[in-house]
Amino acid sequence: MRPRSRILAAVLSFAGGIIGAHKFYLKDAGGSILYMFLLFVGTMISIPITFFLGLIDGFKLLGMNDEAFDRKYNRGFVQRNPVIERRRDEQMRKYESEDVRRGFQTPSVKLRGNPFKSSGLAKYKDFDLEAAIEDFKKGLEVEPNDIALHFNLACAYSLTEKKDLAFDHLARSVSLGFNDFERIQTHDDLAFIRIQPEYDVFKKNGFRVVPTSKASTDKSGTSSGGNKRTESDEFVLSQIEKLETLKTRGIISESEYVLEKRKLMR
Fold it and tell me: Domain end: 29, 52, 73, which one?
């Protein structure tokens, strides 16, 4: 059943107010009975009382705002905006499929059962990375084998330039079942570890950490695996160092630092 229309009710009031048509449309039982009684009385005394009352009701309906009309005559109806509803449905579908699309096998109930996971994600999206890391770590105390938490920690550690921890948690997520390797190679937040000299070895080893000694890397940036930084990599690292200096001096905020670093890494 569709909600009642204020404009249609007003039209019925003007066109059929003499018999109370608008009262019947609005399901106003008391008003309908009153109109029928007044119609009978008016017929007896030859005065169209209901005609004038219908005009009055019509003007009242036109002067009433939609919110007041719905509150009075559309109780029980849920007023939906089709555009908003469509966007909401799309967001919910995206949210529900996000873990599956990324290769996470963790059931969605884990998110509801682990409050640190959801709070960590909220802080992560606000660029409060240190607080997000703490929540993710607490979340792992609740569920040590949560693939999504390990992957999110890898991203957070990459953004804070803690490459060893980033590699470690990324490797753990892969060992637990994460298999969206394309995402590892394209995710903006993992750009920092992808420009590290040990990344190629990490990738060749199936995205698992391979212990390396300091002697295996010479001053030119060439590792024992033949991995060498490109000029583009060196430029990105130099720009990140400049951003770090600006942040240390208080010229830019933490969120601005993270945002600009993400742009560089893309």
Answer: 73
